[in-house]
Amino acid sequence: MEELLIRFAEEEDEGSCALLDPQIPSYFLTRRIEQREVIVAELDGELVACLRFEFLGARAPLISLLAVRPDLQGEGIGRHLIEFLEEYLRDLGYNALMCAAREGSPDFERWLHRLGFQECGFLSGMHPDGSGEVFFRKSLE
User: Fold this and answer.
1) Domain co-membership, 50 together with 116
2) Final residue of a domain: which of 94, 110, 130?
3) How many domains does the chain have?
4) Are residues 81 and 109 in the same domain?
């Protein structure tokens, strides 16, 4: 793999992030970038992946999006994004990270398990088709 740079998104990254996260309203993405809640992966100067996170209450950071360009999936970019986030959250004093997977995503769920996440809950009916979200938690200690 060429030179991979993981960093917080900046205002000029908004268009590229929107391509990887097309369902988010632009005003919401702008706000997340301003609040340093979007992390990007840049490969040889091109933005190729995006991780968006938010907080459930004050003590529960949650990965709400992880998108890697399809031709680069399986190259470790998603893992690098999560490791960057974990280090950032540890420095802020957080002791856990959460993530959700749409029901019926066994490959993604297996990948989360390999990264140390453990299933911790389920919320039914989250999507228009009636499917739910499986929640995962990883200790950062």
Assistant:
1) no
2) 94
3) 2
4) no
pLDDT digits (tens, 9 = 90+) for 48-84: 999 999 998 878 899 999 999 999 999 999 999 999 9
Please give the model's pTM, rounded to 2 decimal places: 0.91
Residues 17 and 62 in one domain: yes
pLDDT digits (tens, 9 = 90+) for 93-140: 999 999 999 888 889 999 999 999 999 999 998 888 888 999 999 999
SS (H, E, C) 34-98: HCCCEEEEEECCEEEEEEEEEECCCCCEEEEEEEECHHHCCCCHHHHHHHHHHHHHHHCCCCEEE
